[in-house]
Amino acid sequence: MGIFGSQLIGFVGQVGRNIGKPDLRTEETEAEEEAVLGPVFVSAEIGEAGDSTMIIIFSDTFNETITPATSAFTLGGITGDPTIEVVTVFGFTIVLSLSGDAVAGDTITVAYTKPAINQLQDTDGNVVQTFEAQSVTNNV
């Protein structure tokens, strides 16, 4: 058996030692980790609430008194390149009202750049971090 064979046996042995050990993470631990990170992007869709309304879902409830500027969001892939006219913060969601409609077949993305002021944040003050272009489900 060559060097790679002995490394593989060592790796398999290490994995075997971890089998059957309990996962020490609890729901409380996971909630604490999420609180430190702030809300994270879960999904986004357009077309259910209207062809010019994008709904973005996050992992935690937002502080609804803080609304970032429309410039904090970047859209891609929508025919006609509509602009974001209004940002609404509600519960677990961000609603973007667009200046034009998406059309069937558009491959849409949304990104968020954490602004210097009026950052999206949960009810505990943990802010949403910048995220790159994420796929948006097109239901038009």
CATH fold-type name: Immunoglobulin-like
Give the count of helical stretches: 2
Average pLDDT metric = 85
Helix content: 10-25%
For the record, the count of structural domains works out to 1
Secondary structure: number of strands? 7
Low-confidence stretches: 3-19
- Please provide the ordered H/E string of secondary-structure elements: HHEEEEEEE
- Across the major sheet, the strand order is 3-6-7-1-2-5-4
CATH class categorisation: Mainly Beta
Rg from Cα: 21 Å
Shape: globular
Structural class: alpha+beta
CATH architecture: Sandwich
Q: Could you name the key traits of this structure?
A:
140 residues, alpha+beta, Immunoglobulin-like, 30% strand, globular, disordered N terminus
Compact overview of the structure:
With 140 residues, the protein is an alpha+beta fold. It has helices spanning 3-18, 27-37, and strands spanning 41-46, 53-58, 73-76, 84-90, 93-98, 108-112, 131-138. The chain has a 7-stranded mixed β-sheet, with no helix packed on it.
Question: How are the SSEs ordered, and which strands pair?
Answer:
Elements: H1 3-18, H2 27-37, E1 41-46, E2 53-58, E3 73-76, E4 84-90, E5 93-98, E6 108-112, E7 131-138
Parallel strand pairs: 1-7
Antiparallel strand pairs: 1-2, 2-5, 3-6, 4-5, 6-7
Structure description:
With 140 residues, this protein is α+β, with helices and mostly antiparallel strands. 19% of the residues lie in helices and 30% in strands. A seven-stranded mixed beta sheet has the order 3-6-7-1-2-5-4, with no helix packed on it. The longest helix is centred in the N-terminal third of the chain and has 16 residues, at 3-18. It is globular. The model is unreliable at 3-19 (pLDDT under 50).
